[in-house]
Specification:
2 strands, two-stranded antiparallel ribbon, mainly alpha
Amino acid sequence: MSNKLHARHNRDACDELLRATAYKDWVVTTAFYSSLHFVQHEIFPLVVAGQSHDTFESYYRNIPRGTRRSKHSETVKLVHDHIPNISWRYKWLHDECMSARYRKYRVKAGFDVIARTYLREIEAAMNK
């Protein structure tokens, strides 16, 4: 599945979960992962130091092991560098997703709606 199709699939799941109202953590999670696929579709292919990378995985494999961040942190940096107009929204989704899924398992009131709003804004900012 292409990044853009995967992004749309996760976006549609996000919308269903938002309507259900009981799964705020999953609304934030699907909003983040949908955004991840949208931004990776937007950024790649990418040329770095004369080397072309068609996918994020190709790019990530070529980062020297001693300087690699996590894949999510590397994507946050790529968004900051290549799509700065939405980078704070993407970072917010990243941080809230990590908190909701892996630390607190809770989402503050209204954060599910904010997450979906940021996803909408990120998707609208994409050119491809």
